[in-house]
């Protein structure tokens, strides 16, 4: 049994293998492995006795279930209209420049991935940036740079 198959088995024991447990298992895999590999999705499909296409369809539908490797720190900037109207474009541009990557990419050292995401639930405090699980409301280009510098190692 491979390491990922063992992880999936443990998570299935923890959460169960009914369809309602699929999200919890996928989220735990992403938390531990940083993304859902093809091997992980196949192992989940086998454990849940569903098709790999069902697992991939679920994984690819949700923004936070990454199906490609990401950086150690994932920066998500809300891209809804309310954040756009409050300066989201300038925020993303400043982050791209500071990190040396375009939106959707990971820095060469693997420290940061920059993404835009649908609503983060802070429309009244936009623009909003999420770094890993930390929410930063009312972010300016300058404060965003200071924030990401706290995550540099």
TrEMBL record:
Output the Gene3D superfamilies linked to this UniProt entry.
Glutaredoxin (3.40.30.10), NADH-quinone oxidoreductase subunit E (1.10.10.1590)
What are the protein's GO molecular function terms? 2 iron, 2 sulfur cluster binding; metal ion binding; oxidoreductase activity
Keyword annotations of the record: 2Fe-2S, Iron, Iron-sulfur, Metal-binding
* Co-factor(s): [2Fe-2S] cluster
What is one Pfam family matched by this protein?
Answer: 2Fe-2S_thioredx
Q: Which domain of life is it from?
A: Bacteria
Residues engaged in binding [2Fe-2S] cluster:
78, 83, 119, 123
User: Span of the secretion signal?
Assistant: none
Identify the PROSITE patterns for this entry.
Answer: COMPLEX1_24K
Describe how the cofactor binds: Binds 1 [2Fe-2S] cluster.
Q: Which InterPro entries match?
A: NADP_DH_HndA-like (IPR028431), NuoE-like (IPR002023), NuoE_dom (IPR042128), NuoE_N (IPR041921), Thioredoxin-like_sf (IPR036249)
- Family the entry assigns: Belongs to the complex I 24 kDa subunit family.
Q: What is this protein called?
A: NADH-quinone oxidoreductase subunit E
- Source organism per UniProt: Acetobacteroides hydrogenigenes
Q: What is the lineage of its organism?
A: Bacteria, Pseudomonadati, Bacteroidota, Bacteroidia, Bacteroidales
